Amino acid sequence: MEQIRKNVLAQLDMTREHEEEELLAAIDEEICREAKERVIPLNWRKELRLQVFHSLRKLDVLQELLVEDDITEIMVNGAEHIFYEKQGEIHAWNKSFSSREKLEDIIQQMVGSHNRVINESEPIADTRLSDGSRVNVVLPPVALEGPVVSIRKFPKHPILMEQMIEGESVSQECADFLKLLVKAGYNIFISGGTGSGKTTFLNALSEFIPKTERVITIEDSAELQIQGIPNLVRMETRSGRADGKLSVTIRDLIRTALRMRPDRIIVGEIRGAECLDMLQAMNTGHDGSLSTGHANSCQDMVSRMETMVLMGMELPLQAIRAQIAAGVDILVHLGRLRDRSRRLLAITEIDKLQDGQIRLNALYEFVEMGEHCGRIKGSWMKRGELIHRGKLYAAGMEVEGGRR
After folding, report:
1. Among 169, 266, 177, which Cα is nearest to 226's?
2. Given this model, what pLDDT does residue 154 score?
3. Number of other CB atoms surrounding residue 256 within 10 Å
């Protein structure tokens, strides 16, 4: 294949962009020429044509994995070792890059297409593909065995809450409850581990945002799929570059968003000092804001918020806790169970600051009830009633039980 690829490149005029049909015609011509010298079976010709095209125009051997809808993660550990996740299980890919140089070319293609830079002096980069897939790249000398690429794929079409209910990721009761909270403008923070479905769940919650509102999304690498909001502004960070372009951080974008007359601000993921800016936005009238973060439980998410705020500013712990208690209304915790299924595990209300501690009010919790055919069965038990109902009353809504 590599020789055919080189011969095709030698024929093309590299000073101009080539149409897909023109490129395929050149590949077909070279394969026919090669077939006169050695036998190439018809079915192999078709495969060869596709491989050469992908190596020239797409992402080489990775393209075959990218077009498969049921593959959710692609992991490249150097040029020779490629793995992928399919239906919750990791498999080794029987193909590899022709050389380390080819892999490095593909990496530069992915990173450069979205104003990112990666080299030996900046060996780590986050970017995205044109289809929205999230990409993380680590180069040597940080990666000891060669370039490492991790690609998180997302569905071509956002997964709706109705589909999550059908897939038993959440109950109808929990979904209806969260729908009310989103519409009424409660500030909701989604927590969970890696691969627990935080971004997917945030997308699903965005279905319930009133269509008349102005929504601003802020992300490191744009991957949210907010649907049905006409007045939508999407912003993405930018890393600093050697050509003099300054970096634009999550914190910069949150501050800018506050001047753009938002009804809601959605931050794709909070990882550090920007947590303080997000809390301040929630505390200055921007109700209904949404965000996500990595944590092992709702209680752990609160602790992580405290730590992240301290990463940006030395504040008394009591002041930080007061900001969290006043700004965040609801914590939604997701998890990936041992059967590889993703479930909503808990919905918790942040009640108030009492005796120096943030008091939590458990609302719903997923309880396991055994297994059937390798899949965990369970139900979402109601643990308590919503205490703070002011936003529901202001929006003309109500849920059963509880108190004012």
Report:
1. 266
2. 81
3. 13
Strand order in the sheet with 82-86: 89-92, 82-86, 71-77, 148-152, 134-138, 124-128
**Encoding tokens for residue 268?**
């794709």
What is the per-residue DSSP string for 382-396?
E-------HHHHHTT
Amino acid at 34: E
**CA neighbor of 218 nearest in space, from 148, 259, 266:** 266
Name residue 233's amino acid. V
Q: Which domains does the chain have, with CATH numbers?
A: 1-57 (no CATH), 60-153 (3.30.450.370), 161-394 (3.40.50.300)
* Distant-in-sequence, close-in-space partners of 225: CB < 8 Å, separation ≥ 6: 132, 154, 157, 158, 203
Q: How far apart are the first and last CA of the chain?
A: 71
Greatest CA separation for the chain:
84
Q: Sign of the CA dihedral 74, 76, 79, 83?
A: negative
| Tokens found for residue 106 | 């593909």
Residues 6+ apart with CB under 8 A from 367: 378, 379, 380, 381
Residues 25-57 pLDDT 10s: 666 666 676 666 676 666 666 666 666 655 555
Q: How far is it, in rounded angstroms, from Cα 15 to Cα 13? A: 6
Picking from 254, 219, 220, 217, the residue whose alpha carbon sits closest to that of residue 233 is 217
| Sheet strands side by side (includes 330-336) | 232-236, 215-219, 264-267, 290-294, 188-192, 330-336, 342-354, 357-372, 375-382
Strand 71-77 with 82-86, pairing = antiparallel
C-alpha separations of 273 from 169, 222, 246 in Å = 31, 20, 19
- Say how far apart CA 404 and CA 95 lie, in whole Å: 62
Q: Could you give the CA distance from residue 82 to residue 61 in angstroms, rounded to a whole number?
A: 9
pLDDT (tens digit per residue) in 112-157: 777 678 888 889 988 888 788 889 999 999 999 899 999 998 877 7
Count of residues for the chain? Answer: 404
